[in-house]
Amino acid sequence: IIDWSNPLRMLVSPQFSIHRSIDGGNNFSPIQSGFHWETFFEQNKIFPDVLYGTNEFGVKSSVNFGTTWSNIAEYPNVNDNKTWRVYVSPTDGNYLYSSWYGNSSGSPQKVFKSTTGGGTNPGDWVDVGSPSENHWIKSISVDYFDPNHIWVATNPHVYDVNTLTQEWTDISNGLPSYISIKHLEQLNGTE
Q1: Distance between CA 130 and CA 119 in Å, rounded?
Q2: How many beta carbons lie within 10 A of that of residue 7, not counting itself?
Q3: Backbone phi, psi, residue 111, to 5°
Q4: Exposed/middle/buried for residue 123 (C-beta within 10 Å: 0-12, 13-18, 19+)
Q5: Is 170 a residue whose pLDDT tops 90?
Q6: Residue 147 CB: number of other CB atoms within 10 A?
């Protein structure tokens, strides 16, 4: 990640960790370990010092560009907080989406939403549903115009999701069945 507010600040993710540069990439220092082997992290699109990452304990957040981290996920009605990905709305820095992979005892993958910037209090996260098949959730894209509308990619499906009604519509008609969709992105400001 190159910091959108200051291009001298950069983050990279070697396995299990995050390294930071404050001099345009000339020098990097490790700032956090304990993430997934393929660390997926995000910078808040509104608050530049706020970062998010994931691991088997949930969503971690830093409010000081990676100097310190804390857990901000306590999901309702599941037995753990295992999280694969986290996504933040491009237009509302308090809307977060995470993909839960607890999947013990045959539970489907789930998407959780926070409208409070995450947290461990009851009500900070709500379950917005699951894809119709039990595949890993590979990517979530948050609608630029409506933070309650997302798209979710699994293998090999793409879903259009209204998170208020929890309606999941499979929009993958015509996609090959053998593909693995790993990244969805809406260009900012486009419908």
Answers
A1: 21
A2: 10
A3: -115, 130
A4: exposed
A5: yes
A6: 21
